[in-house]
Design a protein that fits this description.
mainly beta, 4-stranded antiparallel beta sheet
Length: about 190
């Protein structure tokens, strides 16, 4: 639905007429009528102060499709289809133990639990590693995963939650080394 380079997209699971499209560096648009008309500039207020990646990720709450997420330097949430935004993961605050100033590259919500969200910030250099951040309370509190993941040398490519148990998840990495490309946890990323 975007007239620019097509990036990420999603369709509201309770109303397929509501379609979102993303173009480079976090441009976000929505159509409420299956693509016939497009409302552009939904994330422009965020874009004016933060950087989004070339392919800026978006996500949707699995229970309430009016709640969507977008990842720039911080994680943002809208509860009204992208009209208004609230910062729910603020890496600018002193609350988080991170030196990684990269923009968020992956957002994943659990299939059957609106409380569980995972985000990933890619590594910036050989000294600033990638970070997997997890919440199981709607984003009120966040924890950096303590899984023994190769975030020092590889980039995470995907996060998947189990369809029935959001504490069970898989993460995969870009690599040709099959011993290092898929990791699994049953305790929400604690081990």
């Amino acid at each position: 639905i975007a007239n620019w380079d097509g990036m990420d997209n999603m369709i509201a699971h309770k109303n397929p007429e509501i379609i979102y499209g993303v173009w480079q560096n976090g441009g976000l648009c929505r159509s409420d009528n299956g693509g016939k008309n497009i409302n552009t500039g939904l994330a422009d207020t965020i874009r004016s102060s933060e950087n989004g990646l070339w392919v800026t990720p978006i996500g949707m709450n699995p229970i309430h499709p009016a709640t969507i997420y977008t990842g720039f330097t911080n994680l943002w949430k809208s509860t009204n289809y992208g009209k208004d935004w609230e910062k729910i993961l603020d890496f600018d605050s002193k609350m988080f133990d991170t030196v990684n100033r990269a923009s968020i590259s992956i957002i994943k919500t659990a299939y059957n639990s609106q409380e569980h969200i995972a985000i990933y910030k890619d590594r910036q250099s050989s000294k600033i590693f990638g970070e997997l951040w997890l919440t199981n309370d709607f984003g009120t509190t966040w924890q950096k995963s303590s899984l023994d993941l190769p975030v020092d040398s590889l980039s995470l490519s995907s996060i998947e939650y189990h369809s029935e148990n959001p504490d069970t998840m898989w993460v995969s990495f870009y690599t040709s080394n099959s011993a290092k490309n898929l990791y699994y946890t049953e305790d929400g990323g604690k081990s």
